[in-house]
Amino acid sequence: MRCKDVSKVEAIFRATLTLVKERGLAGITMGDISKEASIATGTLYIYFKNKDELIRALFTECRKQSAHYYFENVNEQLSFEGRMERLFHNIICYKMNNFEVSAFLEQSYHSPYVDVIDLKKKQKALNPLFDLIKEGVETRKIRNTEVQLIVSYLFGIINEMVKKAYFSNKKITEAVIKEVYAMFWNGIKYDG
Amino acid sequence: MRCKDVSKVEAIFRATLTLVKERGLAGITMGDISKEASIATGTLYIYFKNKDELIRALFTECRKQSAHYYFENVNEQLSFEGRMERLFHNIICYKMNNFEVSAFLEQSYHSPYVDVIDLKKKQKALNPLFDLIKEGVETRKIRNTEVQLIVSYLFGIINEMVKKAYFSNKKITEAVIKEVYAMFWNGIKYDG
DNA sequence: AGTAAAACTGAATAAATATTCATTTAATTT
DNA sequence: AAATTAAATGAATATTTATTCAGTTTTACT
After folding, report:
1. Rounded distance, CA B35 to CA B179, Å?
2. For residue B109, what is the nearest residue in chain A, using CA coordinates?
3. 3 state SS of B189
4. pTM of the model
5. Residue pLDDT, tens place only, B157-167
6. Rounded to whole angstroms, how far apart are CA atoms A160 and A109?
7. Which residue of A has its CA nearest to B156?
8. Three-class SS state of B5
9. B113 touches chain A (CB under 8 A)
């Protein structure tokens, strides 16, 4: 054998996400993870120095992946409104289809595994979003408000809705996304 | 001594909330709690059978307290709009001034300490909110949408905003509350 | 003050969990 | 196909954490 197996890291990550979704970050052990990933406990320590590093590595990975999907097809060909709607749509869909990722990230933020320094880096990944909102404010497409407030408004609505849908076992249909987007847009649009 | 000391339970709860706010639910031990509460570890077991019961008792207490404050002064003397704004205001203020309570509740929901049965009871505490929204929809004050969606929209905005404010060390001023409420209202109001 | 009951203490023990490592298995090289 | 190296195993060990309990202090009552 030549090198560490990427697919094993993948299996470990996937197992951890599954367990965190089911039991929460507070309720999982290295034994649980290895069992869920169908590997020996010792093998975890070949891929990660310890539990902290495993969780942190997964945290980093999840953040990278999320941000990547958020901005898919949000490009200059689209109007401001088009880009905003696309972004909104992407974020909802990603969070719905990858609920375990969202759940893990949310739980990690205020856990002993993740510290504030990491959080600062988050800003960069979401810079295009901040820029888009800034543009909207400057061109009077959206109300003249603190950019951060709009971001909180955006993620607040989406996070809560996705969480609710997940825990009540309901799918979020395209019609519902349209409806919520309308509410979101009415909330932020400029009206003199 | 005649009976167990209520103020000691209070101290234990307060200590736990402080620690969960700082380190997260995953990062606290019974030893940490007793130390923070300035009592011996053994004393914890006089008041609570074990860690699970401690956390669950605190969870129940926090939920009761929150719901109580949310509906303060939301009464029939007020117009529909007045009641809605008051409620919005109450929820924000409570969550700001008792951030550790909100943080603890949020983390508990998906922890091994709290199970789904408890969650069902939550519905009842928030019934007045559901009723208010239903009334709004029926009287065409707010858009004709799934009530649950409006609730998610409401809590989503507030939760995210309070979290952001707390972690960036900024106070939410009355002006900001007014601004966010305006956005919220524009999002849900009926417009043909 | 004297006494019994309740509350409190924190070191000792039990239980859970993380981590290591001697051994086995599989892959790669010569 | 033997030798070499990397990866995987899981029982053993170390560490952390929950829980208990024998002894101490405080309280409430006479």
Report:
1. 42
2. A24
3. strand
4. 0.93
5. 999 999 999 98
6. 16
7. A156
8. coil
9. yes
From B83's Cα to the closest Cα of chain A, the distance in A is 20
Q: What is the DSSP string of A84-106?
A: HHHHHHHHHHHHHHTHHHHHHHH
Give residue for tokens 């990944």: A125
Q: How far apart are CA B180 and CA A181, in angstroms?
A: 17
Residue-wise pLDDT for A59-111, tens only, equals 999 999 999 999 999 999 999 999 999 999 999 999 999 999 999 999 998 89
Alpha carbon distances (Å) from B98 to A170, B5, B94, B101, B103? 31, 24, 6, 5, 9
B20 in Cβ contact with B14 (< 8 Å): no
Cβ contacts of B186 on chain A, cutoff 8 Å: 186-187, 189, 191
Is pLDDT above 90 for B96?
A: yes
Contact positions of strand C to protein Cβ (< 7 A): 5-12, 16-22, 26-29
Q: Is A186 exposed, middle or buried (0-12, 13-18, 19+ CB in 10 A)?
A: middle
Strand C contacted by A53 CB (< 7 A): no
The DSSP output letter for A25 is G
pLDDT in tens, B117-172: 667 666 688 999 999 999 999 999 999 999 999 999 999 999 999 999 998 889 99
Nearest residue for C27, CA–C1': A1
